[in-house]
């Protein structure tokens, strides 16, 4: 079968492009190796604020988002400027979020930094108390630290959220704020809100170590929406090479489909950055592994990184080169029908924003170009 577009990489950018194209009546397939950055997602779409088109796309997929100018609480107890966020994430006008906070964790759960949170909130003048819930339902997970992880906990606590509410109410004294780990609403995004309504204090959900429950839920919802619109999602497969002739990509070959090539009129490269192997660095170069595209990076390896670890790192800005229409460049020439979206672009298009903002805006831009064809 020949598709209108084949999308390589099924993270945020691949899914946004796929949903947009399917909605416009195009036939598409997404081929994606595995986990993507959404599994590590804070719940905040950096460099995006209010945007009707983007909010509509998320709402139609069941991804509930909101935006208020101000700050959000990070998992380390500091505050960060707000951006378009999942409904689980509270956005505050300022870091003075209350007077007294009760921070509640689950006994034996080490991926939620209650003491850092307490330290951070105390710096903002809140008095903090940390308490642990010992739920018999979590006993089986508690026996093995590798089982006591966010997604496994979410599977157990979502169906018993009313019990969690009761237990937290028993712990609550005169606090006006309750901080809970973000381990609610894996299957049902309404659970965090029900918990908020059940507790007579402001409830704030703070991030945990990965996997991110709100991120996994977002991935599941976007993927479901894509498939409901008729998109074909080939999970666990990897594009290993492409058939390119005279500047036109005709087809791609995958690891699982053996010698069978997948054909399309247009292709989108949304393979992510180093983390997802969309870009690969070796001691000599930074390269794009599927097509061997031109990459914007510094020749001198000593200029790739800043020895001050916490500072901005130059290598994070490297990305695949494109022309003004986001078509990939190879040997300085655009490939006619290969578009690039998401973090594989690095910082080559600052006007599209950074992080999730870049992923969503570039995906919409390439989908628009393909719809014009
Ligand atoms: C750990 C981490 C956490 C982040 N957290 C946030 C956050 O909280 N907020 C925010 O705004 N931004 C965050 N970002 C920035 C992030 O890059 C973007 O938000 C966005 O999710 C990136 O989406 P993407 O689709 O470009 O790439 P990815 O999400 O990386 O997806 C790329 C996909 O392509 C697949 N792939 C790669 N090569 C191939 C191949 N050859 N064949 C088939 N599939 C392939 C990968 O397996 C992966 O599934 C984070 C980034 C990282 C690395």
Please write the string of helix (H) and strand (E) elements: EHEEHEEEEEHEHHHEHEHEEEEEEEEEEH
Number of strands: 21
CATH architecture of the largest domain: 3-Layer(bba) Sandwich
* Rounded radius of gyration (Å): 22 Å
Number of domain units:
2
Q: Please outline the major beta sheet.
A: 8 strands, mixed
Overall 3D geometry? Answer: elongated
| CATH level 1 name of the largest domain | Alpha Beta
Mean pLDDT, rounded to whole units? 96
Q: What is the third-level CATH name, the topology of the largest domain? A: FAD/NAD(P)-binding domain
Give the N-to-C terminal Cα separation: 19 Å
Structural class: alpha/beta
* Number of helices, where a helix is a run of at least 4 consecutive DSSP H or I residues: 9
Strand content: 25-35%
| Sequence stretches where pLDDT stays below 50 over 5 or more residues | none
Ligand set: flavin-adenine dinucleotide
Proportion of helical residues: 25-40%
The CATH superfamily of the largest domain bears the name FAD/NAD(P)-binding domain
Spell out the key features of this protein.
373 residues; 4-stranded parallel β-sheet; FAD/NAD(P)-binding domain; 8-stranded mixed β-sheet; binds flavin-adenine dinucleotide; Rossmann fold; alpha/beta
Give a concise summary.
By secondary structure, the chain is an alpha/beta fold. The chain contains 9 helices and 21 strands.
Description:
The protein is of the alpha/beta class and 373 residues long. It folds into two domains: 2-41 and 217-372, FAD/NAD(P)-binding domain, CATH 3.50.50; 65-209, 3-Layer(aba) Sandwich (Rossmann fold), CATH 3.40.50. The chain is built from nine helices and 21 strands. It has helices at 12-23, 52-61, 114-123, 139-142, 150-157, 161-171, 191-198, 213-228, 355-372; strands at 2-8, 28-32, 44-45, 65-66, 71-73, 79-81, 84-86, 100-106, 127-133, 177-181, 202-206, 232-235, 239-245, 248-254, 261-269, 280-281, 286-287, 295-296, 319-320, 327-330, 333-340. β20 and β21 (333-340) form a beta hairpin. The relative contact order is 0.17. The structure holds flavin-adenine dinucleotide (FAD). Flavin-adenine dinucleotide is lined by residues 8-14, 31-34, 36-38, 40-42, 44-46, 238-239, 270-272, 275-278, 290, 342-343, 355-356, 359.
């Amino acid at each position: 079968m020949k598709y209108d577009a084949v999308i390589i990489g099924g993270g945020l950018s691949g899914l946004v492009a796929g949903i947009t194209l399917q909605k416009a009546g195009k036939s598409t397939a997404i081929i994606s190796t595995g986990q993507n950055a959404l599994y590590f997602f804070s719940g905040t779409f950096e460099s995006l604020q209010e945007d009707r088109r983007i909010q509509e796309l998320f709402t139609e997929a069941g991804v509930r988002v909101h935006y208020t100018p101000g700050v959000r609480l990070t998992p380390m107890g500091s505050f960060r400027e707000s951006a378009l966020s999942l409904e689980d994430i509270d956005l505050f006008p300022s870091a003075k979020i209350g007077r007294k906070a009760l921070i509640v964790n689950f006994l034996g759960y080490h991926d939620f930094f209650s003491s850092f949170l307490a330290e951070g909130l105390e710096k903002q003048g809140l008095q903090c108390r940390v308490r642990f819930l010992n739920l018999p339902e979590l006993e089986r997970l508690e026996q093995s630290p590798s089982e006591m992880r966010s997604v496994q906990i979410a599977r157990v606590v979502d169906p018993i959220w009313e019990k969690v509410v009761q237990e937290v109410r028993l712990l609550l004294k005169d606090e006006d704020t309750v901080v809970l780990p973000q381990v609610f609403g894996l299957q049902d995004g309404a659970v965090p809100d029900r918990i908020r309504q059940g507790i007579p204090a402001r409830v704030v959900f703070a991030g945990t170590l990965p996997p991110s429950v709100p991120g996994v839920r977002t991935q599941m919802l976007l993927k479901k929406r894509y498939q409901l619109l008729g998109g074909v999602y080939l999970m666990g497969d990897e594009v290993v090479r492409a058939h390119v002739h005279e500047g036109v990509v005709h087809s791609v070959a995958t690891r699982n489909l053996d010698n069978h090539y997948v054909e399309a009129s247009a292709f989108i490269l949304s393979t992510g950055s180093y983390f997802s192997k969309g870009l690969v660095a070796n001691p000599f170069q930074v390269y794009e592994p599927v097509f061997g595209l031109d990459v914007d990076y510094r020749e001198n390896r000593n200029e790739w990184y800043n020895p001050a670890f916490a500072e901005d790192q130059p290598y994070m800005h490297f990305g695949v080169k494109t022309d003004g229409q986001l078509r990939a460049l190879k040997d300085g020439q655009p490939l006619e029908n290969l578009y690039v979206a998401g973090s594989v672009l690095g910082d080559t298009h600052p006007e599209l924003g950074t992080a999730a903002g870049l992923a969503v805006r570039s995906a919409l831009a390439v989908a628009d170009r393909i719809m014009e064809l």
